[in-house]
Amino acid sequence: MVAPSMTQTPPISPLSPAEARPVPSHSAVSPRLWGLVPCAGTGSRSGAAGPKQYAVLGGRAMVLHTLQALAAVERLAGIQVVVSAGDTFFESAVPPRGAPVFVASCGGATRAGSVLNGLSALLEQGAQAQDWVLVHDAARCLLTAADVDRLIDACQHDAVGGLLALKLPDTLKQEQGGRVAATVDRSDKWLAQTPQMFRIGALQTALRAAGDAVTDEASALEFVGQSPKLVEGSAQNFKVTYPQDFALAAAVLAARV
Questions:
Q1: Number of domains, the chain
Q2: Quick check: pTM over 0.85?
Q3: Is residue 4 in a domain?
Q4: What are the tens digits of pLDDT across the range 126-147?
Q5: 65 within some domain
Q6: If we measure between CA atoms, which residue out of 238, 201, 193, 191 comes closest to residue 221?
Q7: CB neighbour list of residue 10: distance below 8 Å, 6 or more residues apart
Q8: d(CA 127, CA 201)
Q9: N or C: which end of the chain has fewer CB within 10 A?
Q10: At 32, which CATH number?
């Protein structure tokens, strides 16, 4: 199946096959749940020739594995992808079956900026401030629909929302001058993952207050005094960041076939 031809003008374009589920109206389901994938990063640490989210793993671009997992979640009304201006990757990409995917050329200079712009794009698509948004890293391509469902089940009735995370498994050291300065208690330490699930309006407010320095959505909610819920994730849901991560991700994908 060939994806519909897209341009980046207007800035929001559909990327949905004929089999995509229709977007439910606001009156049909309230609050709805949406996915948001910031996809405007350069991947400078990965060693890849271009943006790492477009590197090929298992025969397809990394971000398409990511979108396939999200699109398989039946409770998602749609998925908003945020790319940089001039990014043409999705003009020829074959979209996943399931939840409709929309692409907006409104990537910011930082992750926080891209997410904030993506939230505005979602509202233009018909989302409401009280709807939930699940923000997910494009480079966490080993996500499964079961991971997402577990997060939704844990957070959909929570006052704040939450995130997938892992308890720190290793001994944690504090460094000074290249040497161990102290061993840090790990009993209350978690590694943050994505998706991170919050109300659209609340996340907008938090990101505007926290500014571009925050590296994830939970940090923005913390900045405004909220305490997001920790939901245990999966060790396979790691972020492909460094050159050695690509081989590991490819091996996991191959094992799933």
A1: 1
A2: yes
A3: no
A4: 999 999 999 999 999 999 999 9
A5: yes
A6: 201
A7: none
A8: 10
A9: C
A10: 3.90.550.10
